[in-house]
Amino acid sequence: MFYEKESYMSMDAVLQKVASFVPECLAAGYVDVASGMLLAIRTVDSHPREVIDLVAAATADLFNGPNVSMIERMFKKSRGLADDGHHYFQEIIVNSDNLLHIFIRGKTNEEYVAVFVCRRTANLGMALTKARIIMPELEASL
Questions:
Q1: Which of 23, 37, 68, 83 could form a disulfide with 122 if both were Cys (CB 3.0 to 4.6 A apart)?
Q2: What does the alpha-carbon distance between residue 121 and residue 65 come to, in Å, rounded to a whole number?
Q3: Alpha carbon of 33 to those of 4, 58, 85, 112: distances in Å?
Q4: pLDDT tens, 94-117?
Q5: What dihedral do alpha carbons 28, 31, 36, 37 form, nearest 10°?
Q6: Alpha-helical segments (H) within the chain
Q7: Per the confidence metrics, is the pTM higher than 0.85?
Q8: Exposed, middle or buried by CB within 10 Å (0-12, 13-18, 19+), for 116?
């Protein structure tokens, strides 16, 4: 199995493994959506710092933006659930012209979101499955 409980790896080392594990992965990162801060990133290409910072901010907006937060509160209210701070949305998939973007909220810390960017030709089911498999190792590397 890809995840080994006994061995600790740094976030950078885990993100390096992600690139070969998740099909057609071009970039992977970890974002603190509470602050909008990028915790780590690994890409096959170099990108301007401004673009990378915007990706982190956009990820924060996707998961914790005011409209998303309002939708989560409304869903909880309609289902009779307490507004305990738990986030309703756990995964978001975005298809762009050339890329597949997979965003997965952490289980250990809900304010951390992993971002996987793959070529559009990647098999969505396989990329999502492998991204889910790697999440415990990403979370353990913090």
A1: 23
A2: 30
A3: 26, 9, 14, 6
A4: 999 999 999 999 999 999 999 999
A5: -90
A6: 11-21, 49-64, 66-78, 124-140
A7: yes
A8: buried
